[in-house]
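quick one: cobalamin bound model?
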Amino acid sequence: MTKKSSQLSRSLEAVSKALARWTVERHATDDPSLPRRYGAGWQADWVANVEARLAYLAQAIAVRCPDVFSSSMLWNRDAITRRDGRVDDLQASLRHLRAVIADELPSPVARVATECVDAALAALDQPHTLDSIAADDTRHRNVRLHYLECLLSSKRHEAITLVLGLSRSGVPVTEIYTSVLEPAQAEIGRMWHRNEISIADEHYATSVTQEVMSRLRANSTAAKRRDVRVVAAAVGGDFHEIGIRMVADCFELDGWDVAYLGANLPAFEAVREVRERKASLLALSASTFLHLRDAGELIAALRAEPECAHAKAIIGGPPFNLIPDLWHKLGADGHARTAAAAVELGKRLVLQNVRS
Ligand code: B12
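yep, here:
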């Protein structure tokens, strides 16, 4: 990510409302059946939808990664299909958006933006489904499916008892995080996205998982303390806290001195914390594509702070698990798929010359 790509991204964002309006006007002229098919108020809804797509496009431009926009549109297609919408309307809307961008924006931003839209249109021509991963991993498969069933049927006590039982049988917390809680939450996300469960169902599951984590953490003992500090947080604007909390817990269980600062941490605070705590590592989480630019800018701010010159920055979250080289585009020192793997990565980056 560069200063220029960040500026191009913001310049697109600054005019996104107008672009969305023009796109919908062109679409309505081209397809007079839209008001009849989508009903009263359709135009305002469509403008909001196109604006939301432009937010993802702005992120793809910031990190110079068309896959970010393609992935977001495939994800959008999945949601539309599950809500009885028509994928050909999405495709037509993207073609009109492309034409508006090409006609109305100056060439530096138009060039990168149309490249991303073309990549998304090509991706939408290919088949793609969001398959459940809940049954994939064979480790603790039955407990995982049972836990998920408890979350979906409001059996909070049973969920807690189940996981604490697994812990008592000797399974390490890090393994329970990776093989039970994380895939269950991912499946909750998939079902929510596909309109199979409500937002309230997701909130219920998330609160149970947070409680389970607190109980597990209280019952576990950390390894011998290492004299090495890590600051762990999710980027400003990102409200997802479970992933980064798991990362923080795993570092702590491994003996690191951890400052867990939760979700939605403003960039200047993150840099200040790394500096003042003399941390060797910043573990940063970004759970949606919408937070990539802020994450990249935070890492750039860390690099620009002379007193943090020694600190390494690692990053993770669902977007980085989907697009393998995304972490590199943001200027991070590394990425790991899971909290347990984050600790191994941290050790490699920071402890190579330090006795552990
Ligand atoms: C719960 C949830 C929420 C809750 C969060 C509440 C809370 N207190 O945390 C709320 C309701 C706030 C929420 C909101 C939104 N969400 Co949400 N959410 C989820 C959900 C279902 C579960 C998240 C979770 O707990 N995961 C479990 C953890 C353990 O997994 P994880 O985050 O992947 O973390 C692991 C690894 O990625 C890695 N890792 C994580 N961080 C780090 C950091 C480092 C340094 C390293 C090395 C590794 C690492 O280690 C972790 C443990 O192994 C996910 C689904 C999913 N697949 O995760 C969607 C999901 C992340 N949300 C999504 C979206 C789109 C949104 C919204 C934009 C929805 C909307 N339209 O409003 C908003 C954004 C709000 C905001 N500003 O942040 C999408 C993101 C899609 C994308 N690619 O952009 C997902 C994937 C759902 C989906 N399938 O569509 N969400």
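The domain at 3-124 is CATH 1.10.490.20 (Globin-like).
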